Amino acid sequence: MQLTEQLLTQIAWAWAALAVILIPSQVINKAPYGRHISTKWGFAIPNKLGWVIMEIVSLVVLLSCFFDGENKKSPMAIFLVSLWSLHYINRSFIYPFRTKTTGKKIPLTIVLFAMFFNSVNASLNGLFLGSFLQQPTWDSITIFRVGFGFSLFAAGAFINIKSDNILLALRKPGETGYKTPEGFLFKYLSCPNLVGEMVEWIGFAIIAWNIPALSFAVWTIANLAPRAIHHHQWYKNTFVDYPKNRKALLPFLY
Q1: How far lies 109's CA from each of 40, 84, 116, in Å?
Q2: Confidence (pTM)
Q3: Do 50 and 248 form a contact (C-beta atoms < 8 A)?
Q4: What are the counts of helices (DSSP H) followed by strands (DSSP E) for the chain?
Q5: Closest by alpha carbon to 221, among 88, 61, 27?
Q6: What is the pLDDT along the chain (254 residues), one digit of tens a residue?
């Protein structure tokens, strides 16, 4: 069966719907890695190795599907692929080796699930960008939409990276425990790094303006919003003096 834009869009809609359906399960069940790790999930591998393996899939699969696509690579498609690539170069090759997680593990099952999740999202977006995305007509509405979307993407990336830097600086060499982060948006949120990443991919979806990009934004929120809630509750349960004004997802609200 030949892949058409209509078929790819239908698959992306179904994939996004699955993310929404699974949100209650994501809220109830903590993903068992990091501070929420559980031995019930079986064999585990070194945390850094697992992180590289599951994140690099997004980069390799998207680039493969994009360059294998039939369309001429428009400037907008190249721009979007560049944004995606910059994010995942950081997540695959830079961030893992900056973490101070010596001795920590991640269940292999979680790595395999993440690889599948990343493969589907990267395939949908890579195929659309490589085969179906058309260069937009630069009317005033499109210019505003792309500018607004890029502003969100850039702001989200800045929040994500700056927050990660604060978290990474909490541990001195040899330390593996957890501390209460301070400063920047941690004044208002327990996990601005996760919120920043959600904002980032919402911005990407607004720039791209297609259903595969939207489905990835939906999946990002479905995965990271529950994790931010779990982290927030963990902080409150772990540190008796944890700031009461901090929220899980929305400053001053929730």
Answers
A1: 11, 25, 11
A2: 0.93
A3: no
A4: 8, 2
A5: 27
A6: 688 999 999 999 999 999 999 999 988 888 777 777 667 777 888 889 999 999 999 999 999 999 998 888 899 999 999 999 999 999 999 998 888 777 788 889 899 999 999 999 999 999 999 999 989 999 999 999 999 999 999 999 999 999 999 999 988 877 777 889 999 999 999 999 999 999 999 999 999 999 999 999 999 999 999 999 999 999 999 998 999 999 999 998 88
Residue 65 half-sphere exposure toward CB, CA atoms < 13 A: 24
Residues in the chain: 254
Structure tokens at 46: 């070194």
Which whole-number Å values give the CA distances from 157 to 96, 165, 199, 246, in the listed order?
16, 12, 8, 21
Contact 225, 198 (CB under 8 A): yes
